[in-house]
């Protein structure tokens, strides 16, 4: 690098013609003994800028690195955003998460956002979905707001909003089953209302001890609060 800097200068300066030239030469390699770091940092002063241009090549500004960096950039139009506006809900939790009132509210808000019109559950049967484009837009926004997908059969058979809502409600209220064990029986509280069915609700020793410790801590806190008042 230093050799490149000196070469153009030697073309215009004589090493023996004047004391100024000798002084300049000694300033670099002579009595002043400039450090290599200083020479490199000030090399543009010594080089003829019309003859040579000095550029420090590093990994970050090499041609191959810059080319790969440009190729790796993702255009804004290429980014895919999550289609769900609501956080994904596990199918086992759908029934407890969505009540009928909450489900109807989501359907009402989705319909209003698309059409600008208010609607209630009693009016669902009056809303036709024969317009395929409108049906697809409604289903797409409904899926996004609910946080789960509807299958193609549900979309194809829903020719009015009431049919679509009933399908969504059936999906939400469907009993959760384990796909790894399709013969598993999922029971609900209403399954034990028959007289010939009995469920043992007695707590085991661990649960009893846990509840006892909980009550004891509550009593200790109450006593401490009472003593602080006294």
UniProtKB/TrEMBL annotation:
Keywords: Mitochondrion, Ribonucleoprotein, Ribosomal protein
Ribonucleoprotein keyword on record: yes
Subcellular location: Mitochondrion
Gene3D superfamilies: ACP-like
Similarity-based family: Belongs to the mitochondrion-specific ribosomal protein mL50 family.
Cellular component aspect of the GO annotation: mitochondrion; ribonucleoprotein complex; ribosome
Listed name of the protein: Large ribosomal subunit protein mL50
Major localisation: mitochondrion
InterPro entries, sorted: ACP-like_sf, Ribosomal_m50
């Amino acid at each position: 690098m230093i050799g490149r800097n000196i070469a153009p200068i030697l073309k215009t300066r004589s090493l023996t013609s004047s004391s100024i030239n000798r002084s300049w030469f000694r300033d670099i390699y002579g009595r002043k003994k400039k450090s290599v770091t200083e020479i490199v940092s000030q090399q543009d002063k010594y080089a003829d800028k019309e003859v040579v241009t000095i550029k420090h090549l590093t990994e970050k500004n090499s041609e191959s690195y810059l080319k790969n960096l440009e190729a790796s950039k993702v255009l804004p139009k290429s980014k895919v955003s999550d289609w769900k506006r609501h956080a994904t809900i596990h199918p086992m939790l759908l029934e407890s998460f969505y009540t009928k009132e909450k489900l109807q509210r989501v359907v009402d808000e989705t319909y209003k956002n698309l059409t600008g019109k208010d609607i209630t559950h009693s009016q669902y049967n009056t809303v036709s979905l024969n317009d395929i484009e409108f049906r697809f837009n409604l289903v797409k926004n409904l899926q996004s707001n609910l946080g789960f997908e509807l299958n193609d059969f549900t979309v194809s058979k829903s020719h009015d909003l009431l049919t679509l809502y009933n399908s969504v409600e059936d999906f939400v209220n469907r009993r959760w089953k384990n796909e790894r064990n399709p013969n598993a029986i999922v029971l609900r509280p209403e399954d034990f209302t028959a007289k010939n069915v009995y469920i043992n609700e007695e707590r085991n020793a661990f649960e009893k001890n846990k509840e006892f410790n909980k009550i004891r801590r509550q009593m200790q806190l109450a006593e401490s609060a009472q003593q602080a008042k006294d």
